[in-house]
Amino acid sequence: MSEQTPEQNQEPIQEQAQEQTIAIIGGTGPQGQGLALRFALAGVKVVIGSRGAERAADIADELNQRLVNETNSEQFTKISGKDNISAVEAASQLVILAVPYSAHHATLNDIKFGLVSKILIDIVVPLAEGNPKAVTMPVEGSATEAAQVLLGDEIPVVGALHNVSAHTLNALDKTINCDILVCGNDMPAKKQVIALIKLLGVSAYNVGPAYNARCVEAITPMLIRLNISKAVPFKNAGIKIWAP
Description:
Layout: H1 10-19, E1 21-25, H2 30-41, E2 45-50, H3 53-71, E3 79-83, H4 84-90, E4 94-97, H5 104-111, E5 119-122, E6 127-128, E7 131-135, H6 143-151, E8 157-159, H7 166-170, E9 180-184, H8 187-198, E10 204-206, H9 213-227
Parallel strand pairs: 1-2, 1-4, 2-3, 4-5, 5-8, 9-10
Antiparallel strand pairs: 6-7, 8-9
């Protein structure tokens, strides 16, 4: 029997993605909140995690109310909030890490044991301290690779969603204006992550193994530089892959 391509048999994977519960660690921050809103609108059950359960629950209530106000409806999947460890436990399989880079390693150490048999989606970019127009890559090469080393090979780490701005994610009246580049060493894990991301109405592409996160993560400070520049007539730019 021939091996299926990533494009084949995608529909069952897509259905599985919509039926599960995802956790967003760092879900109380701007990017985490934007992702929670977008996935809830797509029908995915979302649990946002924070160091404090009370703060996470309060932010979840605010996000649910915002969805009511902006959609004039309650026909969306409710967002809930828990402490980080409980949020990871509540996830069916996919856990998104959306904390600042300064908290990247410490947060992973806190939730590591809860990630067994799950997939980590690392969206963190190692922006230079005090200078978002540059990156300071860890010795492993990228935040994605650092997470894989810290967690060990038995927990798949997939790098994704690095280059979409928090502003874009939170602008619910607009479509997401970019494609998503996905990298990691585990192909089945990448397929699941791509299926999840496609629920947001965007295209997601497998761009290779984890070491390619060095390139993907480094795009973010370039976009930030463009978006704050007075020399260009736009803000909140993203990356698009165009066919010839």
